[in-house]
Amino acid sequence: MKGFILRKVLLLVPLLFGITLTTFALTKALPGDPAVNMVGERSRPEIIAKMRKEIGADKGVVRQYAGYVLLLLQGEMGRSYYTNRNVLDDIRIKFPNTLRLALGAMAMAIPPGMILGLFAAMRKGGWADRTISVFSISLLSIPVFWSGLMLMLLFGLVLKLLPPSGTGGLRYMLLPALTLSLPALGTIARVTRVSVLEVADMPFIRTARAKGISDCRVNGIHVMKNALIPVVTVIGLDFASYLNGAVLTETIFGWDGIGRFMMEGIIKRDYPVIMGCIIVGTSLFVFTNLAVDILYHYLDPRMRIYETER
To answer: Which residues of 199-220 are buried (b: 16+ CB within 10 A; e: fewer)?
Structure first.
């Protein structure tokens, strides 16, 4: 297990290098000049040139990238062009909000998604199975920005039960978390159904039923435990993407998280903010997948044998 974790962590180094190089090149290819955005298009050329020098945009692209890599090696991510604040400090402030939102969304999606998927598999071909399938596909098909606006309109403006936007406690978090949870719920329900049906047809499950073990015990313990691998994979991917910041949801609801922070950086051409958010998001994605891989070893003993043979 230690060797497996070490290999995964070492793979993060070339991955981050490739991500920084690609992101830096793409940000430089964006139309617009951050110096012009900061001082205004009608400013005198010498003022624009002075601003370019202050933010380091007067240097060559290679020198700019080398300087940024040197900053990363020192544990820094530069300063925002607009606020002059340390980007890493801003991310530390905003990440807990994104983490709370991601945890709330997964708490709303995982239990009902797995229950609906298991119930649909147990009623394969029946009206309940068809109803749940249509429901889960509908959740996957509805755009997040549309469902977010409808929830905001219904619960925030019409019924006035919840605040329509802003960052705060549980009441502020419910609507954006619910918006994020809907597509995840549909995905988890669909994957759980397919996985349960696949496992339920295996010989050891038929043997358990032939021994007279109750359906509740067979489905709740033997089937679900062996059907969890694909479900855990989907949950891990969704959770990692939410930790990267749900850009649309955070922007719609005015939630002060990493996604909204990165969107503001893109609009303003604030390159240090964009780079910092993407690098942190990539690292979170890799470590979340590492946690999922470790969980595989406890869910399926065959994974431990496979890693040992390698």
So the answer is: bbeeeebeebeeeeeeeeebbe
Asked if residues 245 and 262 have their Cβ atoms less than 8 Å apart, the reply is yes
Interaxial angle between packed helices 127-141 and 87-122, expressed in degrees from 0 to 180 and rounded to the nearest 10: 160
Topology classification of domain 87-309: MetI-like fold (1.10.3720)
Tokens found for residue 61: 């692209």
Sort 261 into a burial class: Cβ within 10 Å, 0-12 / 13-18 / 19+. buried
- For 102-118, write each residue's pLDDT tens digit: 999 999 999 999 999 98
Between 115 and 302, residue with greater pLDDT: 115
Which of 46-60, 141-155, 246-260 bottoms out in mean pLDDT, i.e. has the lowest?
Answer: 46-60
Q: How many CB atoms sit inside 10 A of residue 71's CB?
A: 17
* H/E element, 108: helix 87-122
CATH 1.10.3720.10 domain range(s) in the chain: 87-309
